[in-house]
Amino acid sequence: MDVNSLPFEKIIFVCTNERAEGERVCCMSAGGGELRDTLKAMVKARQLRSKIRVSQSGCMDKCEDGPNIMVFPDNVWFSRVTAADLEPILDAVVRSLESGEPLVPPPSIP
């Protein structure tokens, strides 16, 4: 086994858990996949792929509050995320990268 440092400064986990119809709600049916794809494109467009990794995750066990996004290593959790929230979230992540300070969620996002 090799032990390595993190290859990215920030990792943004977007829940894309999918359940069968009729089961408990899930982030995928609430738009988690589209949010992940959009956020990945935004990171690429800003040429931040060497610093920020957008990764999908399985169930974060808060599906009723989804779609959910978690930013690591800051351990900041966003719930009920919409496409309109992605720009302010990414802006806050970039500010955190530039300042070296932990992520402070934008005031417009609870």
Give the SSE map.
Elements: E1 10-15, H1 32-45, E2 52-57, E3 69-72, E4 76-78, H2 83-99
Parallel strand pairs: 1-2
Antiparallel strand pairs: 1-3, 3-4
Helix pairs in contact: 1-2
Query: Mind summarizing the main beta sheet?
Result: 4 strands, mixed
CATH fold assignment = Glutaredoxin
Strand proportion: 15-25%
Strand order of the largest sheet: 2-1-3-4
The assigned CATH architecture is 3-Layer(aba) Sandwich
In total, the number of domains comes to 1
Q: Shape from CA axes?
A: globular
Radius of gyration: 14 Å
Q: What would CATH call the class? A: Alpha Beta
Taking the alpha carbons of the first and last residues, their distance comes to: 40 Å
Calculate the mean pLDDT score and round it: 90
What's the number of helices?
A: 2
Number of strands: 4
List the uncertain runs.
Answer: none
Q: Specify the helix fraction band.
A: 25-40%
SSE pattern: EHEEEH
Task: Assign the CATH superfamily.
Answer: Glutaredoxin
SS-derived structural category: alpha+beta
